[in-house]
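Quick log. Single chain, no ligands specified.
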Amino acid sequence: MRPETHRVHAVATPKSPLLTGALPRVDWSDAYAVPFPGRPPGDPQDWAAAIFHSPPSWVVALLGVREVLVRAVGMQRGGSHAFDPVARSSDEVLLGIDQDHLGFRASVLFEPTRVVLSTIVQVHNRRGRAYWALVRWVHPVVVRSMLARAARTMAESSPV
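-> predicted structure:
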């Protein structure tokens, strides 16, 4: 598959069955998609694993810094459970965690010719607002990179 096929682009946050109502209130949302010439290879859970459990090394380092910083200011750390599945269907997996400062959900949704990665956030308090005010600036770069890497991985592992 040609590299430009894996170009990630911003899209409207879909009103998917699992994402709709996943949080009591949505304070922020975004979505990014990567196209495929036919149905995307694998299934949503495979994609979630490729996205969240095999991120680029610079993202791993950034998440490590995040863990140190949030601990230093007394916020809950995300740890290994931040990207645990909370619901799934045949075309979507929903991951996320609820913490004192905020709750978030990430949806990996299969559409007929693309995979859409959506994020929704509910901020709970001032710490959450301050945290999200910083994180939201780097979030799109991180998400695009993780989704693009997963697309390459999934395309390479699928039968021709």
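Residues 30 and 140 are 8 Å apart (CA to CA).
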